[in-house]
Amino acid sequence: MPPLTYPGVGRRIAYQRRLARMTQQQLADASGASLGAVRKIERGERNLSEGMLDAFADAIGVDPARLRYDAEPTRTPVHAALPALSAAIATYDLPDEGPVRPLGELRAAVNEASHWRLAAQYTRIARNLPDLLTELARAYHSAPGGERNQLAALLVRAYRSADAVAYKFGAHDLSARLVDLMRWAAPDAEDSLLAASVAYVRTETFFAARAHAAGLRALEHALDAAPAPNEAVRIAARGALHMRAAVIAGRANNPSIAQIHLDEARALADGLPEAVYYGTAFGPDSVRIHAVSVAVSMGQDQVARALDVAREWKPPAELPAERRSGFYIELGRAQLWAGQAEQAFESLKVARRIAPQHTREHPWVREDAATLRRLKRADSESLSNFAEWCAAS
């Protein structure tokens, strides 16, 4: 790939890296470049490839166009890719003819997309999933009977990765369509645990519509249909549904039901190793994070509960980046409500270091950064830079 020669690209990389509070070493580690290469690029002594520029942008959590040109971009690559994603699912039942890779290669591609989702690498998902979804639909509709169930399961997992992008970037109608396609494909997979994971994801549509009571009923139906928790993956599937039910019950202002589901999740997680089961992280650490989420969901009256959890524990680095950053975003909101403005800003900065794209697109981050700027309770230059980065109004 030929090197890029955009004037001033090194200067812009250095500026955006500093806005993200990253050192040159951290940028090198996150992008896969050497420290020496980062230094030379920032000084303008070395050109870089398109792939390296994209890697820098992903690591910093900005649109690559912001590194190419001085003009502020109006759309991120993810937003630009949403029409292609919508077009790919529009023909889910009548895909165009074309090549289809062997099942093993398709599985590897879906596994990679799932990894990107958990790591909050949304640009990579947006760029790769439209073609992958089209190819999977093509494979599914032409598959012999023995492979059809496996391809249905791969479709569900791929739709879930695509949905993460649509939901996080505010395309809630597209997200709802992807959830419907997950529900369409799941029965053909003939896997009750996969069906439970779809019910977990479906809750997003209720969050988006603020239909919390209906979402709670849907999760309770899913719990009734879930298989008996007699092995680790089944325990995790049921526990994840209880975690989700606890959060949505909190948002429905039903603290007693929220506590029941949280207690059930905690009991199921006891003795179970923290891991990703059927695409969802579950275990004692995930339950602690959801305890904070439940407290924040119930509003300022419950802020002390969130702070109590965070005072004694922090999420380990082994947890998926999306989940860890979510913890610090919600902790930041609790700290802001408690009048701890400086601590709230520190939590938001930690969330950004863990998962820049997830943090930047989270509506609470924009709201809370704007509130902190109005309060003028943190370092004004750093806070202004952060607010600019996340487009806080």
Describe this structure as you would to a colleague:
- The structure is a single chain.
- The protein has 393 residues and is an all-alpha fold.
- Among the domains are: 1-74, lambda repressor-like DNA-binding domains (434 Repressor (Amino-terminal Domain), Orthogonal Bundle), CATH 1.10.260.40; 77-190, no CATH class.
- The chain has 21 helices and 4 strands.
- The strands form 2 sheets. It has a two-stranded antiparallel ribbon with strand order 1-2. Strands 3-4 form a two-stranded antiparallel ribbon.
- A hairpin with a 2-residue loop joins strand 3 (275-277) and strand 4 (280-282).
- Helix 20 (363-375) runs antiparallel to helix 21.
- The radius of gyration is 22 Å and the shape is globular.
- The two termini are 39 Å apart.
Residue runs with pLDDT of under 50 for 5 or more positions: none
Span from first to last CA?
39 Å
Beta fraction: under 5%
The proportion of residues forming helix, as a percent range, comes to: over 70%
Please tally the helical runs, counting DSSP H or I stretches of 4 or more residues. 21
What general form does the structure show? globular
**How is the largest sheet built, in terms of strand order?**
1-2
What string gives the helices and strands in order?
Answer: EHHHEHHHHHHHHHHHEEHHHHHHH
Write down how many β-strands occur, each being a DSSP E stretch of 2 or more residues.
Answer: 4
Question: Which secondary-structure class do the elements indicate?
Answer: mainly alpha
Major pleated sheet: 2 strands, antiparallel
**Gyration radius, rounded:** 22 Å
* Mean of all residue-level pLDDT scores: 91
